[in-house]
Design brief:
Elements: H1 5-11, H2 21-34, E1 37-40, E2 49-52, H3 55-63, E3 68-69, H4 79-91, H5 105-114, H6 119-142, E4 146-148, H7 149-154, H8 157-166, H9 173-184, H10 197-220, H11 226-231, E5 234-235, E6 238-239, H12 242-255, H13 258-273, H14 275-283, H15 288-299, E7 304-309, E8 313-315, E9 318-320, E10 325-329, H16 330-333, H17 368-382, E11 386-391, E12 396-397, E13 406-408, E14 410-415
Parallel strand pairs: 2-10
Antiparallel strand pairs: 1-2, 3-7, 4-14, 5-6, 7-10, 8-9, 11-14, 12-13
Amino acid sequence: MSLTVAEAGRTLADPTAYADDRRLHDAMTLLRRESPVHWVEDAPGYNPFWAITKHADVLEIERDHARFLNAPRPLLGTAEFDQMNRERAEQGIALRTLIHMDDPDHRVIRAIGADWFRPKAMRALEPRIKELAKRYVDRLAELGGECDFVQQAAVHYPLYVILSLLGLPESDFDRMLKLTQELFGGDDSDMRRGATAEEQLAVLMDFFAYFQELTQARRANPTDDLASAIANARIDGEPLNDFDTASYYVIVATAGHDTTSSTISGGLHALLENPGELDRLRRQPELMPYAVDEMIRWVTPVKEFMRTATQDYDLRGVTIRKGESMLLSYPSANRDEEVFDDPFRFDVGRDPNKHLAFGFGVHYCLGAALARIEVRAFFEELLPRLESIELNGTPESTATTFVGGLKRLPVRYSLKG
């Protein structure tokens, strides 16, 4: 039975759809073709929203950050979650990261960490990244030719990179991994701590408790790491309050980790499903920068952000009313037939590649350069040592509507050295 447009719209609010590529992309392809600006008002448990699925439309909304705001609904959550966030925001105890903010707060808060993610700073970090890439490819060799690539390699490598940048001790890394997976895996029965909004909120409170201790330590004894820069930042002469400080740590620790591990896992899976492209990349290692961006486009680990209109706006002949929310579908934009030649073909030499996986405009991902360096370093270490590799079971993806990718990738392989 063929999918209706209404069913396709509801699919974007179904976490299980993001664990089923064919189902998800069938829905998004239909929406791009039949109803690219589509009103979704009957997704069970969710407040209504506009589904924006065309690359040009996502770009148009991202560019106009004064007319389309992140607040008060920056992410797609259930109606219960939206209500709880509103109540906590009124109490001044809500998570308030860069993705929750608009200017002028966004501009000022973003500047605190911006220098740490500029290309010059990333080049200085590159030797440490390459060292960690080698450590985790060595670990693959030590595992004896079989492993779950996600859980035994991909989730650890970028976590070590970002927590090293923050200056956290390695003894805390496992705790951060668990909290990160619980935070982004709230819709997945294997990942979440609990099913209720209160149980998911408890994960955030654990993050806050950890980072409050870190803030106190860095204010008492400043160091030369990013954690110290955040803890000692001042806006108009005053330090950030406890929740804004903890929120900054949360976005760096989580967004800097889970998205990159999903790209590395999904990138390897794409190479396994397209052995001709794997062979091509091994023969032409100069294609690696293009291959990295193709992996990012292919996986698109951030599935959506929401925007709210500050005034009536016409888009493709449809009027979006003031106060209505829009879901910007990045996986859909990144398979838009009007922008990408043969968008469902994985092409390690794709050029140009105008993907929107990092967003656009003032909210462009702060860690984009870091993510590219990490993915590139890992595959530049892995591919020359790879003698053979194949799937050793069925890959599984995380159920989510926000950030996610593979949660299991069983592989069998042979490595040199």
